[in-house]
Amino acid sequence: MEEAGRHAVFIWSAYGATTLIALGLVIRAVLDHRAQRRALARLEAAGAVPPGRKAARG
Fold this sequence. Notes:
Layout: H1 8-45
Membrane topology: Single-pass membrane protein
Keywords: Cell inner membrane, Cell membrane, Cytochrome c-type biogenesis, Membrane, Transmembrane, Transmembrane helix, Transport
Family: Belongs to the CcmD/CycX/HelD family.
């Protein structure tokens, strides 16, 4: 890393910040996906019908 010289701290800080932000976005997406699946399960249990499907008549 000698080529970077005096800019090494800035470069490694930028890499670190980018990695943390990317990981945060992935974690947020996974948690949101889980929450959406739970919400969908609750709606389906309550009898909600997804768009494009006809309600069962009985």
